[in-house]
Amino acid sequence: MATVELRNVGKVYEGGVRAVDNANITVNDREFVVLVGPSGCGKTTTLRMVAGLEDITEGELYIDGNLVNDIPPKDRDIAMVFQNYALYPHMTVYDNKAAQILEIEELLDRKPKALSGGQRQRVALGRAIVRKPKVFLFDEPLSNLDAKLRVQMRAEISALHTRLQATMIYVTHDQVEAMTMADKIVVMKSGIIQQIGSPLDLYNNPANRFVAGFLGSPSMNFLTAKLREEAGKVIADEGDSQIELLPQQAAALKSYVGREIVVGIRPEDFIYNEKGGKGIRTHVEIIEPLGAEIHVYVSTKKHQMISRVAPTVHFKVGDEAVFNPMMDRVKFFDLETEQAIPA
Ligand SMILES: Nc1ncnc2c1ncn2[C@@H]1O[C@H](COP(=O)(O)OP(=O)(O)OP(=O)(O)O)[C@@H](O)[C@H]1O
Ligand SMILES: [Mg+2]
């Protein structure tokens, strides 16, 4: 049993930098929670407060229901794996106490400088595992590895989580890691938690424009459009193109009629219409064939947008292309507050 709870936790560094503001996070027993957000948003600070390596300025931190604000790191029963493999350079892998579980037995006599990045990170993991801590903390453990190894280690850490049935908190700025590894994602920006939820929850129901744009690659397209009513229908007018809202969307956005809003369309929901006709009229600007799909960058007079298209479609730069948003997947955001408008 190992739970972690942050209640109204804040951190102000000496000199007055506020790194974390009023964080409320519940990590359940055996849960894999990922803290994600851009550089400087307070991920490492949050993790270091959980580890006890950083004083908590405000609020309370509970591990297994016990208030641990003033408990030193060594008594918190926590193991932390850092970005830059913190191995002891004079010790062998064996001394660094790596486990069989990580398939590094043939390396046991080696010293860290004789290991690849991935092997070092496995040893660091091994050292954390043998301590059998209540909670594992990871701070960007894969960011020094090359792309292929990162994908492999990502899967290994996920498998390890399943095998050890341990509570884990994992920090990354990589939204793909967050989406693929997490039971629960905490999205942070400028020290403030933006949203907490399962990966698909956040992907499908982002609370605001920041979360919507941060999760997913390529990013969600955002169009500024003015809402107007016409013959009983509500239209989002982008300038050149008009998007007709579904009846329930029209009802939900009634108070926005006459004002500008932000329409969010994911690249996979921005569907190429081979027949042309009605829709968002664009010109093709950049074509990125990825093999399994094409990312096509197109623009209207006002906006640049990306669509994911089947590899069989043949575009040329400069082509006119019409796209139709999958209306039941489209999101709406308040232009000023950037909060999602439930519709
Ligand atoms: N020891 C410190 N003293 C003062 N300010 C600090 C200190 N450590 C971090 N900060 C500031 O606190 C904020 C959050 O930093 P933190 O390291 O938690 O961000 P992060 O999300 O981990 O970023 P990254 O993705 O770059 O690692 C930043 O503005 C940073 O400059
Ligand atoms: Mg960090």
Characterize this entry briefly.
19% of the residues lie in helices and 35% in strands. By secondary structure, it is of the alpha+beta class. The chain folds into two domains: 4-214, P-loop containing nucleotide triphosphate hydrolases (Rossmann fold), CATH 3.40.50; 221-334, OB fold (Dihydrolipoamide Acetyltransferase, E2P), CATH 2.40.50.
Overview of the molecule:
- This protein has 343 residues and is an alpha+beta fold.
- It has two domains: 4-214, P-loop containing nucleotide triphosphate hydrolases (Rossmann fold, 3-Layer(aba) Sandwich), CATH 3.40.50.300; 221-334, Nucleic acid-binding proteins (OB fold (Dihydrolipoamide Acetyltransferase, E2P), Beta Barrel).
- The chain contains seven helices and 20 strands.
- The protein has helices at residues 43-51, 117-130, 147-164, 175-181, 199-204, 209-214, 247-252, and strands at 4-12, 18-27, 32-36, 58-63, 66-67, 78-81, 135-139, 167-172, 184-189, 192-197, 221-230, 233-237, 242-244, 260-265, 270-273, 280-289, 294-299, 304-309, 320-325, 331-334.
- Strands 6-7-8-3-9-10 form a six-stranded mixed β-sheet, with helices on both faces. A five-stranded antiparallel β-sheet has the order 13-12-11-14-20. Strands 15-19-16-17-18 form a five-stranded antiparallel β-sheet, with no helix packed on it.
- It is globular, with a radius of gyration of 24 Å.
- The chain starts with a strand and ends in a 9-residue tail after the last strand.
- Magnesium ion is lined by residues 43-44.
